[in-house]
Design the sequence.
């Protein structure tokens, strides 16, 4: 649907949004400083307006908020608007701490952000209603020919029929039995804007080739869209189009991470790591002396762990066990309280006296903030396994390593002692991966802090 990609329409909608933001800023200025507020007051706070508007335009463009002709534009519209304003609002608020005090006003900023959300939200609502009504009245319609057979073809036809607001109309359905000559005749005699090919992976008819039909579309100048049914070969993986080495390719991935949110995640990791390293430096002299006085061995414990997509790195911890703990582990494997590729023992005899205190307060994990700062770990993720544990993984267990490991995670705050098997741990990890968002990370961090202050033995 070539009209979906109209840059002009996107630019017009973006311009309208800028006007609405300006109107919101003007009205907020009147509300905060009174009806007699002059234009000069708005000029004094121009950095606040430009900063917020720039962040809004970036997030709105990357989240397709201006692509009103796209059939999927209405999907999750309100949620997208909320997320855009939250993201732009936080970054815009950061500007208040960077600019001179005379050019910032918290009351003005809050009023401006709130009014902007109301104005933009109402605009998108009315646009959505207008487009829906227009398309249900057969305007702004894209006519299609559905060429193919099988379950995918039937599903596509059914979805288009059930969603007239998408603006699609299937005017002809053609089976694979039609010859290229007959197909050419249909194109000559029909008003059709696009041909959708839905070809099954397994063809019962020998000798079928899609090439002649695509060449006819090419010669006649008709756009063609090919639904690649290889997506049906997988259960939950996502497919995306990418150009690679100047060739069209499809990439399969099981982790869908919003690039913009990933930037925020890394920023949060860096900020949290810096705070953690400060705490680490403050605690080091006391913990180092306590560790050295209560057991033989180094202050720090270093171990090779497996990170994202199998990349190995060295993890750092304050040593909480005896120096020969790794050797004694083999003798204690029969006391493992969890079934599967992980070792857990409630009263582990290898743990030293100071080690029990550090573990209860999670002080032994402070050095891992160095791993977070280096980018080997994140504040929130899945716990990094050892190579020995990975060697005992089942195939589906490996997906828990498709993201960067973390200091804490969903299964830790869900009650670690209530988990009976390693499979239960992996299921919680996969639930985190499949539902990841920056807000889920924030919830887990808050729960982690709550658990630490309660000194909950489940953590």
Sequence:
């Amino acid at each position: 649907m070539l009209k979906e990609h109209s840059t002009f329409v996107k630019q017009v909608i973006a311009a309208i949004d800028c006007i609405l933001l300006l109107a919101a800023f003007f009205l907020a200025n009147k509300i905060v400083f009174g009806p007699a507020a002059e234009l000069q007051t708005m000029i004094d706070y121009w950095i606040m307006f430009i900063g917020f508007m720039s962040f809004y335009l970036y997030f709105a463009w990357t989240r397709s908020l201006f692509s009103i002709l796209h059939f999927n534009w209405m999907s999750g519209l309100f949620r997208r608007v909320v997320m855009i304003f939250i993201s732009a609002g936080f970054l815009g608020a950061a500007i208040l701490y960077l600019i001179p005090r005379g050019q910032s006003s918290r009351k003005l900023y809050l009023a401006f952000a709130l009014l902007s959300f109301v104005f933009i939200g109402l605009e998108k609502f009315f646009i959505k209603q207008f487009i829906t009504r227009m398309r249900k009245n057969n305007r702004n319609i894209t006519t299609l020919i559905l060429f193919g057979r099988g379950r995918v073809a039937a599903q596509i036809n059914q979805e288009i029929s059930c969603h007239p607001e998408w603006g699609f109309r299937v005017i002809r359905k053609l089976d694979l039995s039609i010859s290229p000559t007959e197909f050419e005749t249909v194109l000559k005699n029909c008003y059709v804007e696009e041909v959708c090919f839905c070809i099954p992976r397994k063809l019962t008819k020998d000798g079928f080739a899609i090439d002649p039909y695509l060449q006819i579309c090419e010669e006649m100048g008709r756009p063609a869209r090919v639904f690649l049914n290889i997506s049906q070969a997988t259960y939950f993986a996502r497919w995306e189009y990418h150009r690679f080495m100047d060739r069209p390719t499809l990439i399969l991935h099981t982790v869908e991470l919003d690039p913009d949110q990933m930037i925020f995640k890394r920023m949060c990791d860096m900020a949290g790591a810096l705070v953690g390293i400060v705490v680490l430096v403050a605690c080091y002299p006391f913990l180092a002396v306590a560790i050295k006085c209560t057991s033989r061995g180094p202050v720090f414990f270093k171990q090779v762990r497996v990170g994202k997509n199998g990349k190995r790195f060295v993890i750092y911890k304050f040593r909480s066990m005896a120096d020969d703990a790794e050797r004694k582990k083999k003798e204690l494997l029969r006391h493992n309280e969890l079934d599967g590729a992980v070792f857990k023992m409630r009263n582990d005899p290898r743990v030293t006296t100071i080690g029990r205190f550090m573990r209860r307060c999670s002080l032994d994990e402070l050095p891992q903030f160095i791993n977070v700062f280096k980018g080997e770990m994140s504040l929130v993720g899945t716990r990094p396994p050892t190579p020995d544990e990975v060697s005992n993984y089942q195939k589906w267990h490996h997906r828990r390593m498709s993201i960067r490991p973390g200091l804490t995670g969903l299964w830790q705050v869900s009650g670690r002692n209530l988990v009976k098997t390693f499979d239960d741990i992996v299921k919680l990890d996969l639930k985190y991966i499949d539902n990841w968002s920056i807000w889920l990370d924030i919830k887990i961090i808050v729960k982690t802090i709550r658990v630490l202050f309660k000194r909950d033995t489940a953590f």
About this structure: Residues 259-454 form one domain. The longest strand covers residues 142-148.
